[in-house]
Write a structure and sequence with these properties.
The chain has about 100 residues and is mostly helical. It folds into two domains: about 50 residues, no CATH class; about 40 residues.
Length: about 100
């Protein structure tokens, strides 16, 4: 039977292999990440004749993350409504007086 490694052990073995056997440093990794991000930004900004909109990308990314976490728009609307109502209730004293409407007869 094989020996199973925990995720922490796998990470440590991989890190040791990269640093010790391949000679990859943390600075190498940082530089490669910087280069990859720069290439992606350049690609996105030139995609579609320069129509890249960072605000639109951020909005879509946040919306997708919210949808992934909370489900559909109705569930999100209910969650936000509940939280806003609770925030208002915590900050204000709300009184409701119910009286019949006057009718012109």
């Amino acid at each position: 039977m094989g020996t199973f490694m925990s995720n922490a052990e796998k990470y440590e073995a991989f890190r040791n292999f990269m640093f010790n056997d391949l000679g990859v440093t943390k600075e190498n990794l940082r530089e490669w990440i910087r280069e990859a991000v720069a290439q992606q930004v350049t690609h996105l900004t030139h995609q579609g004749s320069g129509s890249f909109d960072p605000k639109d990308l951020a909005r879509k990314t946040v919306l997708q993350a919210v949808m992934d976490r909370y489900g559909d728009r109705e569930a999100m609307r209910q969650l936000v409504s509940k939280e806003v109502a609770q925030m208002l209730a915590d900050q204000f004293q709300v009184s409701i007086k119910i009286t019949p409407k006057e009718t012109n007869q």
